[in-house]
Amino acid sequence: MIDGIEAALLAAGSEPKSKTFVRAWLGWRGERSLPLRSKLDLVDVKPLLRLVMLTEVRGPDEIMVRVCGTQLSEYLGFELTGRDLLALTPPADRPIRRYRFREMAGRPCGAVFQHHHVMPSGRLYPSEVIMLPIDPDDPAKPRLLMHNFAPLRGQFTSKAVPDGQAVPLSHDFRFLDIGFGIPDSTAP
Fold it and tell me: What is the pLDDT of residue 120?
């Protein structure tokens, strides 16, 4: 039986690939509050992997991209794996991104938003993004955040120039309750 939080998570995204990701996360979680990294069965999300990213909040000033799917790198025009996402954030937006990631990893909670990839050609490719936390097997290690990017069907538009090597914020961001409540989306 689906409880209220599970139903809300499944309803958070409109794209079928978002729902596939949420169902897999719920399955990995089982009876736990959060899934353990060792319980992730990537077969459950195999068709999504090119558009999945794992980040790790290592401290207040470091959000490391552990893995970035190949299609995401193609959209961005540069490789994100092994890079600090906060360093790629425009300076004025860093306090907001820092707050969002700290809350998602610490509380924990999830998030949903639209991200607009500017491809090297200058075309804009919007995606619906759902982020959900994953517990490390070793409690001394940081919690991971798994991001699933689901392209919004048929919504390519033109843009004059690519953004270069920056990852802008989404302004339609909202936190998702996974059982621990949610922080204020308008802070900091």
Answer: 62
